Amino acid sequence: MTVRQLAIQVFRHDPRDPGSRPRVVTHGLEETPGMTLFIALTRIREEQAPDLNFDFVCRAGVCGSCAMLINGRPGLACRTLTANLPATITLFPLPGFELIADLSVNTGKWMRGMTERLQAWLHLDAEPDPDAIEAAMDPDLAESIYELDRCIECGCCVAACGTARMRPDFVGAVGFNKIARFRLDPRDHRDDADFYQLIGDDTGIFGCMSLLGCEDVCPKSLSLQTQLAHLRRVMARRGLATGD
Amino acid sequence: MNTSIPAPSDHPGPWPARLDLLQSLTGLFLGLFMWLHMLFVASILLGPDAMWTVARFFEGYFLFGRPLPWLVSLFVAVVFALFVLHAWLALRRFPGQWRQHVAYWRHMRGMRHGDTTLWFVQVVTGFAMFFLAPVHLYLMLMHPELIGPYESADRVWSGGLWPLYLVLLFMVELHAGIGLYRLAVKWLGWSGAGRARLKRLEWAFTTFFLILGLVTLAAYVKLGIEHAPHAGEPYTPTWQRSAP
């Protein structure tokens, strides 16, 4: 079996360095069995470019740190086998997020802003009593909540969203998924009227143009479109019931 | 633990929901109407008498015993109004600034994602219809009596409107087909295999109506060429002609 020679074109730029200019650097690499883009980038950093910046933590598609544009489409480097790609691979940082350097972006800053804007945390009626026995939850409901909690906030859905690319104030699928999650949670005292205040406009659910990029690139295969359509129906009903 | 919902002054109010629903409902009506319209127009393929019957039917000929073309004008006025309303509502989605155009174009090129590209097709076809559709609508509004086998064929050929109808056919069928598919995904949340089936169905409908439209237009052109020496003469159905 012939071993493929990969040409990995990597975007390089460090905004903190006044002398740095955005450029693309090509690295030649011999493909090995089971090679992921994470392995390829690690080898490039070890053997060719020790100053190359890219993020990773878990190497198993759990932390969401290594999201990047892989031949133009968002994906996780650790979950992408080079065998599934052509011999020439182009890697760019995830768009829509602040660039740290090279392939590293600050998704955390964006996610924090989104979380604060959508108040994406449990709103309880009272402070929880750590000594009390936790109230039981229906297993099916817990499972539904857990399904939405599988989101790893990698940012792929935001980078894949044409609406978000045109309108940076758009909430994005990750935000809608959070609203859907807290809407399900019986411990959260907010109702649909409250959620309508958060996403009931054109930067929210009514700005979504159903381009479906979010669902098609989600590395966790979350059924985002089902959630978005459900939220749209619920919020439309809520909006129609709202007075001027 | 509790954080307050934004103050009432920040409330989005009911209009974002109303506008989103209105855009979808006007689109649904116009899309379905265009498919029916195609079937009515294609009655010429069954012969001039069939098309004459369809045209007079909508003028109430078989109900009132005489044609009332203003009934058609009235319906055209409603369609025209809904078209303008839909166009205005859809404009909210258009990229308005150069930066947005560039952002979407780059995104689309990089993503190579069917539904992201289809939205751009909708923008282009929608933009073209701003200019093409009013020509036809105004003619139908002012001269509803000129809908008939010879009358329509003369308009297509001797009136020189066939190039407009040829372009309009592609714009309308693409826009309607993609739009109806997007509506289903947007509100009903079709996902996975269901979405793929829905998309195949959408393309089947679009292909069918495009072929039907091209054959129909060819039939009107043929009839128009044959009738050119007598352009302007209305059609008389065979059963109303006096014996020679």
Average pLDDT reading of chain B: 93
Q: Overall 3D geometry of chain B?
A: elongated
Shape of chain A: elongated
Computed structural class of chain B: mainly alpha
Biggest sheet overview of chain B: none
Helix content of chain A: 25-40%
Per CATH, the architecture of chain B is Up-down Bundle
- Give the percentage of residues in beta strands of chain B: under 5%
CATH topology of chain B: 3 helical TM bundles of succinate and fumarate reductases
Number of domains of chain B: 1
CATH architectural arrangement of the largest domain in chain A: Orthogonal Bundle
Domain tally of chain A: 2
Structural features:
heterodimer; A: 244 residues; alpha+beta; Ubiquitin-like (UB roll); Fumarate Reductase Iron-sulfur Protein, Chain B, domain 2; 2 domains; five-stranded mixed β-sheet; two-stranded antiparallel sheet; 9 helices; 7 strands; 35% helix; elongated; B: 244 residues; mainly alpha; 3 helical TM bundles of succinate and fumarate reductases; disordered N terminus
Describe the 3D structure.
The complex is a heterodimer of chains A (244) and B (244). Chain A is α+β, with helices and mostly antiparallel strands and 244 residues long. Chain A is built from 9 helices and 7 strands, in the order ββαβββββαααααααα. A 5-stranded mixed sheet of chain A has the order 2-1-5-3-4. In chain A, a hairpin with a 2-residue loop joins strand 3 and strand 4. In chain A, helix 7 crosses helix 9. With 244 residues, chain B is mostly helical. Chain B has one domain: Up-down Bundle (3 helical TM bundles of succinate and fumarate reductases). In chain B, 73% of the residues lie in helices and 0% in strands. Chain B contains 9 helices and no strands. The N terminus of chain B is likely disordered. The chains are: A alpha+beta (244), B mainly alpha (244). The interface between A and B is large, with 51 and 43 residues.
